[in-house]
Amino acid sequence: MLSKTEILEALRGRLIVSAQAYPGEPMRDPRTMAQVAASAVSGGASAVRVQGLGDIQATRSAVDVPVIGLWKDGKDGVVITPTYQHAYAVALAGSHIVALDGTRRERPDGLSLAETVKRLHEQTNALVMADCGSLDDAKAAADAGADIVGTTLAGYSGERPATEGPDLELISAIRAAELPALLVAEGRIHTPLHATAAREAGAHSVVVGTAITHPATITSWFTEAVEG
């Protein structure tokens, strides 16, 4: 079993691939997502990020790299692993890292982010990735004990406008804050140039999802280009 230090070092300077499908889509099946994740690992992904307990379990059996797990529940507000019970279940399903909403918004169960992180660290072996939407989120998440801070919710939580590509300004600001947590760039990274820019802005690691693992969206890009 990898230690927490070994997991974090495995991510540093590397690509993480998010393999997720939305409800109702043809690929919305744990076995399919595990196969997609395994294909990403074959291409060099250092870790994979998957959603849902079934996907986490299937992916753990399919890959030998760290699995970042989450559980989306709800449609508005805090929906990424919104409560401690969600987070605990994600850890028990086999996630090496539990990804959860790392914004400063009120959590549905009334627990603070710090309380949630503390319980996870005490009751599981999982690390915690805080999906943040701003510099203040990242600072608060690091203070709360999160092992990783991500820019996942930049442009989605209401604090910052959605940029066309990754929020390079936010990445730079978080890196300049010299937080103790690993900094992961995530969100709207659609090309290799975007990934390079995110690293140059200061991200320790980069997550790419849609541009690698979501055929419907990728096809729509090409459809628009061909059909005008």
Textual characterization of the structure:
The relative contact order is 0.13. The protein has a single domain, classed as Aldolase class I (TIM Barrel), CATH 3.20.20.70. The protein has 228 residues and is of the alpha/beta class. The chain starts with a helix and ends with a helix. Helices cover 42% and strands 16% of the residues. It catalyses: an N-acyl-D-glucosamine 6-phosphate = an N-acyl-D-mannosamine 6-phosphate. Belongs to the NanE family.
Task: Kindly summarize this structure in a few lines.
It comes from Brevibacterium sediminis. With 228 residues, this protein is α/β, with parallel strands linked by helices. Helix content is 42%, strand content 16%.
Radius of gyration: 16 Å
CATH topology: TIM Barrel
Helix tally?
10
Assign an overall shape.
globular
Which architecture would the CATH scheme give at its second level? Alpha-Beta Barrel
- Listing every helix as H and every strand as E from the N terminus to the C terminus, the arrangement reads HEHEHEHEHEHEHEHEHH
Provide the CATH top-level class. Answer: Alpha Beta
Strand content: 15-25%
Number of strands: 8
The averaged pLDDT comes out at 97
Q: What's the N-to-C terminus distance?
A: 51 Å
Poorly predicted spans: none
Q: What is the CATH homology-level superfamily? A: Aldolase class I
Strand order of the largest sheet: 1-2-3-4-5-6-7-8
Class from helix and strand fractions: alpha/beta
Q: What fraction, in percent, of the residue positions are helical? A: 40-55%
* Number of discrete domains: 1
Note the main sheet: 8 strands, parallel, barrel
InterPro entries: Aldolase_TIM (IPR013785), NanE (IPR007260), RibuloseP-bd_barrel (IPR011060)
Keywords: Carbohydrate metabolism, Isomerase
Pathway: Amino-sugar metabolism; N-acetylneuraminate degradation; D-fructose 6-phosphate from N-acetylneuraminate: step 3/5
Protein name: Putative N-acetylmannosamine-6-phosphate 2-epimerase
